[in-house]
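fwd from M.: "can u put these together and see what the complex looks like"

so here's what she sent:
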Amino acid sequence: MTVAVVRFGGSNCDRDAARALSYLGIENEVVWHEDGLSEDVMGVVLPGGFSYGDYLRAGAMAARSPIMREVREAADAGVPVLGICNGAQIGCESGLTPGAFTTNESARFQCEPVHLRVERADTPWTARYEAGDVLEIPIAHGEGRYEIREDRLAELEADDRVLFRYCTPEGEVAPSSNPNGSRGAVAGVLGERETVAVLMPHPERATLPSVGTTDGGGILRGFA
Amino acid sequence: MTAYTATVTVRLKRGVLDPEAETTRKALERLGFDLEELRAADRFEIDLDADSEEEAGERAEKMAERLLANPTIHDYSVEVEGR
């Protein structure tokens, strides 16, 4: 009964995620994608990195690898699934979550701390926060601009599926606080179930006190 | 079976920002070229054997739908030629 951190060829935040989960007392193991998920898996992290070298599109290849069928089955059975950064791109490419993450408005790789506003607190990922809380968590991506048709975004908003938005330190969603041009300043969204979520920022890099803010720990506690 | 080349062109939907194309456009302008707009697209040339041009096209279309294009942001077109 452990959380599986799925390692693809090119994942590079798998050990960070594992270490952050261990720090929180959440049992976990890094699982090579070809080995598949164990039947009693109690959670899945799709970690950050550059799976398959970002060939074709970030996350496109990993999203279509065999283990993702198992991840989808687990998600459909209610197992919590969290996609972080490249894992978020994989989540959207696989259809676990809506929309797509594509080239930043700046056309550059951006590695910097950002602020996120918690849009709702009644999900496993945000139960440790209040709606409206502002978290400081780093991003590190070249393809993090959330894209979705306007009418689909309106549906997501109506269904309360936007989990995090980029915001100012005061919690205001403004063009100046949107680091990559994401539509609706969306930084993280829910899948069809509240137990499935993806986000571009890195909560595992904001969990251990020795590396900076610990604002992200609450997100990973969604597995506890 | 006949040998065909199916060419799949994948481009961003109208209205989806393409920062790389925009950067390329600016670079061309810096070189002194005069242009209104620049659109970039990915082109995949797929050699395959099929019973008919239609079948070759259908197979390439499935490839586009399953992997080559992301329907959230892309449109695609398929052209088939004998090879």
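replying to her w this: Chain B has a mean pLDDT of 97.
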